[in-house]
Amino acid sequence: MTSLVFARPAQPSLPVQGCEARFALRRVYCIGRNYPWPGDGGAVPEAPFYFMKPADAVCLAEGSIPYPPLTADFCHEIEWVVAIGRGGFSIAPEDALGHVWAYGVGLDLTRRDLQHAAKAAGRPWEGSKAFDACATCTPLRPVSEVGHPRRGAIWLSVNGVPRQQADLADLLHPVEQLISALSQSVTLQPGDLIYTGTPAGVGPLLPGDRISGGIAGVGQFELTVAAPTT
Ligand code: MN
């Protein structure tokens, strides 16, 4: 057995609904936007683009999430999460769904002010998207139980007030296209998550806010935003 200088870090994982075994996380890919937004004018969608989050920053969507440092504009983005169970490179769209093992409901949490500053300076978004506890996900629902949803409401409310409301059928690039496009760029492997983009209505969160969200037929969650660590 390989000896390590430091103890092996804990393997990040998510629970699987109705199953003792957990889903070990490998990489977390996030697709930009991917729903029609007001002001788009029905424009032809650009090719899907992605960024990444650290796998050990994914938290189970329960209890509370910390208000992160260095921001005054901490934003929610609810997203349909695809969990890959079979790896592949250059996957054809017609084969893509065969690589999906489960689905979940996630939050792509964003320090929006840092993102705006990075864009304005022509710098990477990294600091706005990748930080401790920057993503949540519900327990995964295996394809063997929920199949491959084609439609279903995706919604998020803050303190009972609706913020984001759309339908999975509104995705500009459907899941098979996302998998196919992503796999032209990288080799997908079991344990990879794909956050598939967010509907319009993203907005700021404040300490003490109660977030509820879900996707019909996939899952739902409730979270509280904790006070910032001082
Ligand atoms: Mn997002």
Write the SSE topology.
Layout: E1 13-16, E2 19-24, E3 28-31, E4 50-53, E5 58-60, E6 64-65, E7 74-76, E8 78-84, H1 93-96, E9 100-108, E10 110-111, H2 112-121, H3 126-129, E11 135-137, E12 141-142, H4 143-146, E13 153-158, E14 161-167, H5 175-185, E15 193-195, E16 203-204, E17 210-215, E18 219-225
Parallel strand pairs: 3-15, 5-11, 6-18
Antiparallel strand pairs: 1-2, 3-4, 7-10, 7-16, 8-9, 8-15, 9-11, 9-12, 13-14, 13-17, 17-18
Summarize the structure in words.
- The protein has one domain (21-226): Fumarylacetoacetate hydrolase, domain 2 (Alpha-Beta Complex), CATH 3.90.850.
- The protein contains five helices and 18 strands.
- The protein has helices spanning 93-96, 112-121, 126-129, 143-146, 175-185; strands spanning 13-16, 19-24, 28-31, 50-53, 58-60, 64-65, 74-76, 78-84, 100-108, 110-111, 135-137, 141-142, 153-158, 161-167, 193-195, 203-204, 210-215, 219-225.
- The strands form four sheets. Strands 3, 4, 5, 8, 9, 11, 12 and 15 form an eight-stranded mixed sheet that branches. A five-stranded mixed sheet has the order 6-18-17-13-14, with no helix packed on it. A three-stranded antiparallel sheet has the order 10-7-16.
- Strand 1 (13-16) and strand 2 (19-24) form a beta hairpin.
- The longest helix is centred in the last third of the chain and has 11 residues, at 175-185.
- The termini are far apart.
- The model has no long low-confidence stretch (mean pLDDT 96).
- It binds manganese (II) ion.
- Manganese (II) ion is lined by residues 30, 77, 79, 108, 195, 197-198.
- Residues 30, 77, 79, 108, 195, 197-198 line the site of manganese (II) ion.
